Amino acid sequence: MIDVRKLRMLAALDRLGTLAAVAEELRLTAPGISMQLSALERELGVALTERQGRRLVLTPAGKLLAAHGRVLVDRLSLAELEVTALRLGEVGSYRVAAFPSAARTFVADAWRRLLAEGAGVSLTLTTPEPEDALAALTTGETDLAVVHSYSNVPRDIPDGVALHAIVTEPVWLAMRADDPLGAPAVDLAELANRPWITPTPDLTCFEMTERACGLAGFRPRIVAQSMDFQVQLELVAAGVGVALVPDLTVAALPREVVLVRPAQALSRRIHAAQRSSTHGDPGVARLVEAFRVAATGRVRQDTSLPD
Hints:
It contains nine helices and twelve strands. It has helices at 4-16, 19-26, 30-44, 60-88, 100-117, 130-138, 204-215, 229-237, 282-298, and strands spanning 49-52, 55-58, 92-98, 121-126, 144-150, 161-176, 185-186, 195-198, 221-225, 243-246, 257-262, 267-275. By secondary structure, it is α/β, with parallel strands linked by helices. The strands form three sheets. Strands 3, 4, 5, 6, 7, 10, 11 and 12 form an eight-stranded mixed β-sheet that branches. A two-stranded antiparallel ribbon has the order 1-2.
């Protein structure tokens, strides 16, 4: 039978990249870990690591076994958490990766609520874009990834990842309040000759805008790009152009700007993603529900904004 402790070391080396980092995380010595991995190779009769310069890296066989190791470690961690939850009423520590507008709004709201309730949940947070959050989830660097997709831009989900619906938010057309086209809904085709403000091309939000305009029969004439939606709104206020903005990205609406619905309805769907191997973790389930409740309270279905 394969020693689970050695599997944990192998999986950690695959994730962290160096023996020193593994030793620090597991509170062991680098030579001790190297000896354990060598022993695992002898037990299995296959090379799991190789030297590349001064670094110890995994062979293809090592990477395959490390992937199995991550699943087993997840299962063991889940068992430990459930026992702890039963014995002490605690649910453990979780690493969350959430894109910025989610982190700023409903993730912060849910975290505030959990702290106020004295919940036995400890969180750490990073704010990568969805692609990087999903990559971190599959490699074991995070436990829960908050990601989005658009109604006109679906997202590929890796194998071994389970999704939980959090909320669906509208995508608004931001334009000046004195724009003659201002109405409850505007056909994007009427904006074919207008200048546009968009996110940067590396973001899914950019593709959403390009596709929405393409379906309306034109390619947007882009005059400004920013990954900061508040910058986009201020540029709209300045009369630079128009923009499509997801609801949660609107932190403060300039008084010169109104949000109207595109006649071609657009929405952004938000999900919490976890590794399938952690399904049933009560702490993750509690976090997902806390995010869902907080997000429902944050997303507006009309253009009224809080003061």
